[in-house]
Amino acid sequence: MIWFIAVAVPCLLFGSLHAHDPSCRTVEDCYRLNFHCHSGHIIVCSGGGRKRHELRCTCKDHHLSSSTNETVTATQSAIPSTHAVATSTHAVATSTHAATALPHAAMTTTQAPSVNGGWSFWTEWSSCSASCDQGTQTRNRTCSNPAPKNGGLSCAGENFHIQICSMFPCAVDGYMSEWGSWGGCSATCGGGFQMRTRTCHDPIYGGKPCQGDTVEVNPSCNNQSCPDTSSSSTRPTMAPSTTTAAPAQNMPVDGYMGEWGSWSACSATCGGGYQIRTRTCHDPLFGGKNCTGEVVDLNPSCNTQSCPSQITGMACPSCDDQLNCTWNQTCIVGSICMIRSYDGYPFTTHCIDATDCEIMKNSLPHCEVYCCTDKACLSKYLGV
């Protein structure tokens, strides 16, 4: 009986306690499950009891032998090692995931940002496309400040400008009109002359004068012989002769020129014209020689005095860059005298349309253009 109490009671008590010990893997599990021990004991997670392969929370007296402590300590040390392996495995998996994600992260961080394009400064205006009258000039800019990159937006707006550039008027050379019709012949027979004329359109803005004649003469027309006005009915009748005599013989008569007629009126009242005079050829008779000499005489210059202008424009001198001036031109009505001093062009003073002068003055940069309408203005800038 005493043996039963001494052996069975502790076994029953131990079995009862073991049955209520919770499962664990580490001591931390025991604390998490609110497992407690009495004073003087410590909590361990060991394989004590009937199933040594199953770890459970137990209480041990901290005064146990060192061997027991070492065993418990070794057991406890072994358990965290398992946890450490799991932790290491998780760390490796995390590292592997991080390594897998690394290319994507690297790709994200190395992709350059987009850059929108910006305009450069405008270039200088080009030279005018025309050296006189009216032309055009251009300027441009590029989308390069900066250029668009990585899908950035291109520049908005125009990259090209064009504008009208007005220069001084181009010189216009004088030219002849078409010839008019031939005039009537000065004689109906025996040779005469006829004329035709054309007009010179005067040069403007310093153009070249007309070339050629304004009058052309055809010195020979109606050259057929004039009919003989004498007839047999008008000749004296010879008395009949009762004797036979040799027929009378005419000696030959050469043709000859009559006296010159008066000069015709001049073809112009001023500015130069022409006039003509004529004479007649008396035809030869009986095989005589033909007339010699011209039947028309031409005076190519008459009334050469200058024509008075109905409305006289302003005087405009011609000056060089040393301001040596000669008063040799008069502007037509509506024109003025322009003084121009512009880089790349010779210094000049000449007549120009008033509107064209103002356009040039306002459109040409960095130049001196003066549009003078009277001599006071010319004196101010030229000292004449």
Which structural traits does this protein have?
17 strands; two-stranded antiparallel ribbon; rod-shaped; alpha+beta; 384 residues; 3-stranded antiparallel β-sheet
Radius of gyration: 67 Å
Low-confidence stretches: 1-19, 64-108, 231-248
What's the tally of helices? 5
Q: Order of strands side by side in the largest beta sheet? A: 16-15-17
End-to-end Cα distance, whole Å, is 162 Å
Relative strand content:
15-25%
Give a short summary of the structure.
The protein has 384 residues and is an alpha+beta fold. It has helices spanning 2-20, 27-32, 66-110, 354-363, 375-382, and strands spanning 41-46, 56-61, 134-140, 160-166, 175-176, 192-197, 200-201, 215-221, 256-257, 273-278, 281-282, 296-302, 315-319, 325-330, 335-341, 348-353, 368-372. It has five helices and 17 strands.
